[in-house]
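FW: tagging you since you asked about this chain on Friday. Here's the raw sequence from the shared folder, copied in full. Didn't touch anything.
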Amino acid sequence: MRTADTILNIIQDRGKRGLHLDDVYRQLYNPDMYLRAYAKLYKNDGALTPGTTGETVDGMSLDKMERVIEAIRYERWKWPPVRRTYIDKPTGGKRPLGMPDWSPKVVQEIVRSILEAYDEPQFSDHSHGFRPRRGCHTALDEIHTFWPGTKWFIEGDIKGCFDNIDHTILINILRENLQDNRFLRLIEGALKAGYCEEWTDHQTYSGSPQGGIVSPNTIKHLHGQVRQICGTNTHSSIHARTNTEKASRIRTFGTQSTLLPENWEPRKGRNTTERNATIPIRRPL
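HL: got it, structure written out here
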């Protein structure tokens, strides 16, 4: 039986060559994929955070892993609803988080690793959000190094992005390159699992729960589509957002970058364009 690293390297190679990914669901039968996911997750603080059933990493065993594999093999796996909690936003208000149980976390990590191995070679070098070893700082470093002549950058924010994702649109985007209906149904099941709040179950007809391991990967596909659309009207675009930070408003002066405050607006009388207008951004020479 192949090791998890061998499987992910093969998937990554298909991504590099732009080949469709098919018959990937059966990779979830491989126990080494679960051991790899366990090794990545068990040391996290959230490993001891219970979901709706109270299951944590303390209950992990090889027998339980075999039961999960059997349920997935015969498509009897059911995603339990996540436990909803709220955290404070830096700008005020509350952000909902979904806390999954331990076994769903492990399965989500396997799904995430498969999607990431396939997608990473295909994503733009100018994309920095929700990607390994990338984030706001790498985006700012790229701006400082390669974009010294650009005077304006425009920030766009999808309001309530995690809460308002259309499941049908997202699955159709994934289906363009992922030709495995069982794997797609597994992802769709995670999206529709619902959440439990104050001992009441709620169905989810849209959105992807923040706090889930696989959620940032689904968001990246939507961002990739947005970037392709923007690319038809602009020379390039940079997305600089991570799961903990929004991209800051940036104005560059020569080789110096200044982070602008949240409530910044252009002064009247300047030779500027409305902040929400589309401004072409040129590639560096």
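FW: The radius of gyration is 21 Å.
HL: agreed, and The longest strand covers residues 82-88.
FW: great, closing this out.
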